[in-house]
Amino acid sequence: MEPYKEFLNIVAKTFGADAEISLMKPSLPLIYSKNFYVYKIGGIQNAIVLCPTSDQIPLNLWLGIYRFFRQENERVFAFLSKAYASLIKPFEEYQIDSIDYLGALKQFDSFSPDLLEALLDKETESTPIYTKGTQLVAKFYLFNPIKSYTAREIGKRLNISAATVARSNVVLHQLKVLVKEGVGAGIMYTLISKPFLIQKLKPYFIKPYGESFLMMVDEGFVMSQSGLLLSGESALSEYSDLSAPKNRTVLAVAKNRAAEIQKHYSALRIDRPTTLIEIQFFIYDPVLFSKGKTIDLLDLYIVTEKKNTAKDPRVNQALKTIENLIIHG
Asked: For the domain bounded by 132-200, which CATH number is listed?
């Protein structure tokens, strides 16, 4: 028997005789696909209906799948069993008056996840502390497939402690970009969506370097060094119509290599070919998520956005291009 068949008859009456109801089989992270049925309401009305596979689905999973579908759908509805009454405090406060008819079976009530999100906000009392470790972990979720990960797995991949990852996961969960499942050592987190992560974390992004230094170096220096990547305007020119600076090259390297790099500094001498570089010493190794000769796209986005104080429209367009590349590859 089709899941929620009797219930969907009520939905059909609510949305009208012309409503076309079909069970969707979208490509979803496992954490969602095993916990929800997704129905498409077509015809005159267009909406997504989310129905749980059990009455034990945590509220944060509801919010996660809602945000997943809300990106491309005007109307997304969640239908919660009466079993959620103890979770929703008070239950009636979040009910949608306009579709009360869906409660006719006396087993379900209809709720807007937009309103339920307010409940989660009330339950998050502490202010998240976003650090460079948090940013590294956020980058891991952004540049890897959307699935569930343990802190140990991420720590091993990033060569940082599982405790650092665990703390960062808590912060990202507080910021509502991750969904949590499991308990104790079995806790796993899943990214809700890449566009949502970028949107939610923009106010928290940390510029990956403190200062930049202008240096004169031997002409062959840049080509001979590993771990040096194009950054700033030099990297931006690789992904946009903006030109690279003509009088210098902008590079990035991990700050723990500062002393080594500065050994190559040369006083300006007419008899020795030199080139001017602007070098940025990153708070973490820029090579970690880099592909090719530039810093990774999120670092490039952050560096560019924070420098674009004048809101140059050409740079704004380049930022949109970078964001699209991050999301879609």
From this structure: 1.10.10.10
In tens, the pLDDT along 117-130 reads 444 444 444 567 88
Determine the Cα–Cα distance for residues 206 and 189; give it in Å rounded to an integer: 22
pTM exceeding the 0.85 threshold for the entire prediction: no
Provide the total of helices (H) and of strands (E) in the chain, helices listed first.
13, 11
DSSP 8-state assignment for residue 103: G
What lies within 8 Å, CB to CB, of 211 at 6+ separation is 280, 281
Query: Residues 48-79: pLDDT tens digits?
Result: 777 777 767 776 777 777 777 766 665 676 66
* Alpha-carbon gap, residue 174 to 155, rounded angstroms: 20
Rounded Cα distance, 232 and 302, in Å? 10
CA distances from 58 to 65, 84, 87, 156, 226 (A): 11, 9, 9, 29, 47
Q: Which residues are CB-neighbours of 310 under 8 A, at least 6 positions away? A: none
**Rounded distance, CA 182 to CA 192, Å?**
16
Q: How far apart are CA 199 and CA 318, in angstroms?
A: 17
Token pair, residue 204, equals 């928290």
Which residues does residue 48 pair with via DSSP β-bridges, in sequence order?
A: 40, 76
Residues near 113 by Cβ (< 8 Å), separated by ≥ 6?
62, 63, 66, 67, 70, 76, 78
